[in-house]
Automatic annotation (TrEMBL):
Its cofactor is Zn(2+). GO terms for biological process: proteolysis. It comes from the Bacteria. This is M3 family peptidase.
Length: 715
């Protein structure tokens, strides 16, 4: 997941500053640190507050200067000036955002709520300002006379569209209403996310007797005992709702009642009728978003959200999701029959429920392929996995990594840091890995950054990129051994990091790609994770150092598609729920989002044993913002990534240098100068085909199909 920082400004310009020296690091001319990375340990909550407020005030002055400028509006004095405004504000946002999501405290959460309405109002003050918009529009309407290059033209287009989408064309009464809606939506999204973080880290299932944990790997038992001791329950075992803690129970525990307890606790986060309940917040968000869309002239919120994405409209999204859903449900039903057979082998005759799915599917997988994922994990020690990730980046792009953990500022003691060295020997970027769960860290995994790539004159300012995950920690005498799924996640997030390392644009306003394109670099990177050549580099037994046997590699390959019915359906269920909520043309005042979710999934014939990957009350992607009416993006991008990896395979060499150079040049480097489909066709030479995705998931039964200009059509 590529996590976007909240930002009221367009810009990140890190040139010289005239700010006076101050005890507040943000207000000093220099941090005095390597590569001007923020001195995290010196920054207080009051420093953040002061810098945010001062940053907003400075940007207001910069905006006023653009408006007061009596010169004829042109690209430099209006568009570039606007793009580069808010230097201080962006500077502090890029530090606070990652900290607030990975090291959340009562202080950071309180500051987020305090500033949320101010950020919303500040952004509206810019994009609803009629005098500023008049200047932007004048430049836009007369752009031909400025002789702009492609990047400059794209920046102008982005700025103009951002004003239009920000409500610049509304009348005064409508603008006032939009301000109100933006403020309410922003605060509700923040509250949703804070509630979910609390529910994930502070919802526990406690076990009193060791025999109740039969089947659970020893490392997970030790981790549960440690968690219990840390929470004043020494002699017991506790599981919170971070996946490294609760997933092994669902996959390995023989105790059905315990699996049921953990399953309910995980899927009902935000749905427990307590002070952290997210049902009403979700209903309000759906309602307010629809009101905003209609105010902007759209019939539903999805239409507003999709207007500037590759998919363009909801019909194209549903067409893709429905096309994959049919074979996925068929595959899931086959898996359910395997599960029923395993239940009978255990001497039972009950109909499987959701809490039986992972456990018995794992048993069925072992029976079919004789693969024990717990044994596989013994070859997947986290530091070795990272070496494998770096190996792939080196083979494809010539990158090397020089560890600087003792040199760079530390924002979290378990995080590591590196200089990323390009093939020409120059430092390309700076990278932090933050892999372990802790109190105050959000669930899941994401890529963020403490600074984006930019330019200071002709000098490229290096990005500071962070991978944040919740991986399995070391336990007892075992190091941090990872599951196959965790390894995939590590490769995924590093794909986002590669995108950030290599982005090379001159204007911050053209750095972003469409939401449904952004997962291409991350998802294609997953394809190398379990290739035999790559496994031989990093998959070494944590005790003996033995390279993973080819026999086991073959079992991993053979079994890779097993369980894809479940995995695909749970993903599609979440994507469809997201779309269904945001294509509503009217929202009933008594809407119960959980009942709505259940009814819609039942209508589609989705097996009752498969919940959406995220239920509405813990669906941070859509209710927390960022992927609203956009969770489909992972599937949309998977069409691209499977087809793109096929391009490598067609050469006979998955590390083909020519293909890697093209991928870097046309996909990773341009930022958003070109639209997504143009970038993809520049790389592939044609539009993407969907058959590689279906084949990759073991779902290909029909004739090959192709994605054409956002439409899925038969060839």
């Amino acid at each position: 997941m590529k996590k976007c920082l909240f930002t009221a400004s367009f810009a990140l310009a890190l040139g010289g500053s005239s700010m006076a020296q101050s005890t507040n690091p943000f207000l000093s001319e220099s941090y005095g640190t390597p590569y001007e990375i923020a001195p995290f340990e010196k920054i207080t909550i009051d420093n953040y507050r002061e810098a945010f407020l001062k940053g907003m005030e400075e940007q207001k002055q910069e905006i006023n200067a653009i408006i007061r400028n009596r010169a004829v509006p042109d690209f430099e004095n209006t568009i570039v000036a606007l793009d580069r405004s808010g230097e201080l504000l962006t500077k502090v946002e890029y530090v606070f955002g990652p900290i607030a999501s990975s090291n959340s405290t009562e202080e950071t959460r309180a500051l987020e709520k305090e500033l949320s309405p101010l950020f919303s109002a500040h952004s509206d003050d810019i994009y609803l300002n009629p005098l500023l918009f008049a200047k932007v529009k004048e430049v836009y309407d007369n752009q031909k006379k400025f002789g702009l290059d492609k990047e400059q033209t794209k920046l102008l287009e982005n700025v103009y569209k951002r004003f239009i989408r920000g409500g610049a064309g509304l009348n005064d009464e409508q603008k006032a209403e939009l301000r109100k809606l933006n403020s309410e939506i922003s605060l509700l999204e923040l509250t949703f996310s804070q509630n979910l973080m609390h529910e994930t880290n502070n919802t526990f299932v406690t076990v009193d007797k060791l025999e109740e944990l039969e089947g659970l790997p020893e490392a997970n038992i030790e981790a549960a005992a440690k968690m219990a001791e840390e929470n004043g329950q020494k002699g017991k075992w506790m599981f919170n709702m971070q996946r490294p803690s609760c997933n092994p129970v669902l996959q390995y525990c023989k105790n059905r009642e315990l699996r049921h307890r953990v399953y309910d606790a995980y899927y009902n986060r935000g749905n427990q009728n307590n002070q952290y309940d997210n049902k009403e917040i979700s209903r309000k968000l759906v309602t307010l978003r629809l009101q905003k869309a209609k105010l902007m002239g759209y019939e539903d919120y999805a239409s507003l959200a999709l207007d500037n994405r590759m998919a363009k409209n909801e019909q194209n999204v549903y067409r893709l999701l429905d096309q994959v859903l049919t074979p996925a449900v068929e595959k899931a039903k086959e898996e359910l029959n395997d599960i029923r057979a395993e239940i009978k082998k255990d001497g039972y005759n009950f109909e499987p429920e959701g809490w039986d799915y992972m456990y018995y599917l794992n048993k069925a997988k072992q029976a079919k392929y004789a693969i024990d994922e717990d044994k596989v994990s013994e070859y997947l020690e986290i530091n070795n996995v990272l070496k494998g990730i770096f190996y792939v980046a080196n083979k494809l792009y010539g990158l090397t990594f020089r560890e600087c953990t003792d040199k760079f500022p530390v924002y979290e003691k378990t995080a590591q840091s590196w200089e990323v060295i390009d093939k020409d020997g120059k430092v390309l970027a700076l990278f932090y890995s933050d892999y372990y769960p802790r109190d105050g860290k959000g669930a899941g995994a994401w890529c963020t950054g403490f600074r984006d790539q930019s330019y200071n004159g002709n000098e490229r300012v290096l990005p500071v990129v962070v991978n944040v995950c919740n991986m399995t920690t070391a336990s007892g005498d075992k190091p941090a051994l990872q599951s196959i799924d965790n390894v995939t996640t590590m490769f995924h997030e590093f794909g986002h990091a590669l995108h950030s390392f290599m982005c090379d644009v001159h204007y911050p306003g053209v750095s972003n790609v469409e939401r449904d394109f952004v997962e291409l670099p991350s998802q294609i990177n997953e394809h190398w994770a379990f290739e035999p050549e790559v496994l031989n580099i990093y998959a070494k037994h944590y005790k003996t150092g033995e390279v993973i046997p080819m026999e086991l590699v073959k079992k991993i390959e053979e079994s890779a598609k097993y369980g894809q019915g479940f995995a695909t359906v749970e993903y599609l269920a979440a994507s469809l729920t997201d779309m269904d909520l945001h294509t509503l043309k009217e929202v009933p005042s008594d809407l119960n989002v959980m009942e709505f979710e259940s009814q819609k999934l039942k209508e589609r014939g989705i097996p009752s044993q498969i919940y959406p990957r995220y239920r509405v009350t813990n669906f941070s992607h859509t209710m927390g913002g960022g992927y609203t009416a956009g969770y489909y993006s992972y599937m949309w991008a998977e069409v691209l990534d499977c087809d793109a990896f096929q391009a490598f395979k067609e050469t006979g060499d998955i590390f083909n240098k020519e293909m890697a150079d093209k991928f870097r040049k046309y996909i990773l480097t341009p930022g958003g100068i070109d639209d997504g489909m143009t970038m993809y066709k520049n790389f592939r030479g044609r539009e993407p085909k969907i058959d590689a995705l279906l084949k990759n998931r073991g779902l290909l039964k029909e004739e090959p199909q192709t994605l054409i200009n956002g439409d899925i059509e038969k060839r």
